[in-house]
Amino acid sequence: MRPRVKICGLTRPEDARLASELGADYCAVNFFPESPRYVPEVAASALTTVIPRGKRVAVDVNPAPGILQKRRAAGFDFFQVHYDVRETAEEVLQGWSGEVGADRLWLAPRLPPGVPFPAAALAAAETLVVDTFQQGTFGGTGRAGDWPHFRALREQHPDRRWVLSGGLRPENIRAALSATGAEIVDVNSGIETAPGIKDAIKLDLLFAQLAEL
Predict the structure, then answer these.
(1) What are the C-alpha distances in Å from 163 to residues 1, 14, 33, 40, 64?
(2) Max Cα separation, the chain?
(3) What is the three-class DSSP state of 80?
(4) What mean pLDDT do residues 184-197 have?
(5) Which of 26, 64, 81, 153 is such that its CA lies 20 to 30 A from the CA of 161?
(6) What domains can you pick out in the chain, each with its CATH number?
(7) Coil, strand, or helix at residue 191?
(8) Which alpha helices (DSSP H) does 5-118 contain, by range?
(9) Over the stretch 6-19, which tens digit does the pLDDT of each residue have?
(10) Strand, coil or helix: what is 155?
(11) Has residue 212 got a pLDDT over 60?
(12) Can you give the pLDDT at residue 149?
């Protein structure tokens, strides 16, 4: 069976529409101002109107109290939150979980190599995003991560949903799935012509690769 697919970093309605039509299970909008794929709140409605309910993911970094509830009121279904494990207290994670529920919260800790996956994240969210670490950034590196480590996390915590992210593209998606057993994949820069501009041919190739599984 093919994994569920999240297309991240959408900035244009036509890309969001195509991703959904091709079979994306989740379509994500990035609200982090420092990201090259940042979408201002006033422009986000143009994207949510073409993304079916149940597929809308809001991506934030260290959101202040009340922000996730605001995203939910704006029509988003899931809430992916990036944070630094060395700077964010467990109480903050529980606050995010309390705002939208552990079943709708996707936590993406920025985790340096060798640092154990935080137990606080496992307690606060049912879905965890494992992205490639790069100092000074929150995701969007375009580099593949530690696939054996991802598989180990899945096997150690089978009661959680694990999202594989980092450097995925049509050319390596099947190898990544073989190495990790991922049930959810997060694809972004590997299907772009420029940050936030999705390539229709690459999108089609991605889903064609997955259709052969």
Answers:
(1) 16, 25, 23, 25, 24
(2) 44
(3) strand
(4) 96
(5) 64
(6) 4-135+142-197 (3.20.20.70)
(7) helix
(8) 13-22, 41-48, 67-73, 90-100
(9) 999 999 999 999 99
(10) helix
(11) yes
(12) 92
